[in-house]
Amino acid sequence: MSSIISSLPFDPTLTYINGEWVGSSNSQTSSIKNPATGQVIATVSESTTSDLDAAVQAAHEAFYSGAWVNTYSGAQRRDALLALATSIEANRQALEHLESLNTGKPIRDVRVELDDTIDLFRHFAGYADKVEGRHIAAQTNAGLEGYTVKVPVGVVGFINAFNYPLCLLAWKVAPALAAGCTVVFKPGPQTPLTTLFFAHLLHSTGRFPAGVFNVVLGGVAVGQALVDHDLVDKIGFTGSVATGKHVIRSTASTARVRATSVELGGKSPGVVMPDADLQRTAELVISGCMNNTGMNCNALTRLWVHRSIYAEFLPLLKAAAEKIVLGVPQSEDTEMGPLIDRRQMDRVLEYIRIGIEEDKAQLLTGDSSHRVGQEGYWVRPTVFQNVDPQARIATEEIFGPVLSVLQPFDSLDNVIEIERKSEFGLAAGIFTRNHGDIARFTRRMRCGTIWVNNYNALYSYLPFGGFRNSGFGRELGYESFDGYLATKAIIDDITY
Ligand SMILES: NC(=O)c1ccc[n+]([C@@H]2O[C@H](COP(=O)([O-])OP(=O)(O)OC[C@H]3O[C@@H](n4cnc5c(N)ncnc54)[C@H](O)[C@@H]3O)[C@@H](O)[C@H]2O)c1
Fold first, then answer.
1. Who's near 327: CB < 8 A, 6+ residues apart?
2. Bridge partners for 451 per DSSP
């Protein structure tokens, strides 16, 4: 067993339900692997549907007893979340090493994710004491006054993707707890370890009543049971389009419908205009695509390059891709780690094969047989050029380090028209100093985030989410906090 696992301050074979550490009710377990080596690093419990039921009942009781939202004032919830942020900060080194070991992420990237995680808890703590409604003065001479009251939506069931375990947990849990909701959280089955560490830290603050935060572990069966449970008031889902659509259908077939927010996949375009700083843009595009080994919902994977600079730009792109350092994730020099598991690696290699064989693109760089060490799930940064915009590698989400540089374009307006019809609408980027082009692009593109002369920067205070098949609902920003509140209208006859 790795020394990181043996020195954890909690028992990873248990999970956290109703303020206690418990095993699976049928002792079922699953193995967690280090994606860099393929070796098993830990055994965790698999929650059963009866464990899930216990977690939801606990969250329901904690919510409806008022233990979190009534007994605790907004200011107390704020202080609890601030204490939690301080505790995460005090334990950040151990969390970073655990996250890097479980995900294969380069340690320097995980540090940025820990910065974000801590910031997210502090940011949303600031909203906890600022739940506000509106007052509407009497509209008629009948003396009726109206005002709105915002209340937490209740029990939120969260289902997370594997790719940013701790950071996406913070995206979800920080605003939900700040709003006064209680939570049942299911991490991606491949990457549960920092979620358990987080539960340990939350428990250790002594500021969160039992049942306010609960963890269930496993895959499809427990996820589905969470979506279907009648005591869940809202589902927050992050994952693929196929699973997301299934989740939406399921929440509509339960006895009581419930609010749903789904953050799904993407195939985000970038546009390089003739006046772009080509060297800088090549590096931004490559990191925009290859960051997190391409397992990034908003990865820049469809690149439009203007005809007038195509020949000059592509060698810069190739050089930027080839200089990325793959290696042991815990080494300070490593810039790119492995894919999460064999299934994901096989999927990416299959797309690279399709790209080569479909005859709608040419391979510019990439070596599909690359390995770092004998085991592990490694694929080198891969770039295709002259890609037909309809090719499969140009239209389907690969979720790996594969960039499609499309055939050269002449008109930005045509690009916008094509992209407005895309299946996805998560993000886009444009590289130019021309203000008119920036204005046309940012106003006409139909997607949730648009980066201008940068890519991938996200902030606690700006919302993130999709159009079309990239999902609905917003995470981050005030918009996400508001998504955990329901509005009541009160009409008061002041003459009575
Ligand atoms: N838009 C975003 O914010 C965002 C962020 C990260 C990842 N993603 C997307 O996530 C996908 C990759 O993640 P993944 O492979 O973990 O996705 P996935 O859809 O396979 O799984 C997502 C989660 O759903 C659970 N699940 C599976 N079947 C379920 C069911 N029937 N009911 C309830 N839960 C179920 C899984 O166990 C996992 O926790 C990509 O498509 C990526 O674009 C989106």
1. 333, 334, 372
2. 429
For the Cβ of 400 lying below 6 angstroms from any atom of ligand 1, the answer is no
Ligand 1 centre and the CA of 409: distance in Å? 34
Cβ–Cβ < 8 Å for 473, 261: yes
217 alpha carbon to ligand 1 midpoint, in Å? 14
Record the tokens describing residue 267, joined without a space. Answer: 């195939």
Asked if 262 and 286 count as a contact pair (C-beta separation under 8 A), the reply is no
Q: pLDDT of 447-459, one tens digit each?
A: 999 999 999 999 9
- Cβ 341 under 6 angstroms from ligand 1: no
Where are the strands (E) in 121-233, listed by range? 135-136, 144-152, 155-159, 182-186, 213-215
CB 194 within 8 A of CB 215: no
Ligand 1 contact, 235 CB (< 6 A) = no
| Cβ atoms within 10 Å, residue 418 | 16
109: its two tokens:
């990237």
Nearest to 338 by CA among 458, 98, 163: 163
The CA-based dihedral angle spanning residues 313, 317, 322, 328, taken in that order and rounded to the nearest 10 degrees: 160
Nearest CA residue ID for atom 29, ligand 1: 220
Q: Residue 468 — very low, low, confident or very high, per pLDDT cuts 50/70/90?
A: very high
The alpha-carbon radius of gyration of the chain (Å, integer) is: 24
The kind and range of the H/E element at 486 are strand 485-493
The structure's pTM equals: 0.97
How far is the centre of ligand 1, averaged over its atoms, from the C-alpha of 239 (Å)? Answer: 2
- Based on the residue annotation, tell me whether 396 is a catalytic residue of this protein: no
Number of Cβ within 10 Å of residue 50's Cβ equals 12
Q: Is 292 near ligand 1, meaning CB less than 6 Å away?
A: no
Evaluate if residue 368 carries a pLDDT over 70: no
Q: Is 301 in the pocket of ligand 1 (CB under 6 A)?
A: no
The complex scores an ipTM of 0.97
What one-letter code names the amino acid at 94? A
Of all atoms in ligand 1, which is nearest to the CA of residue 224? 32
Average pLDDT for 258-272? 97
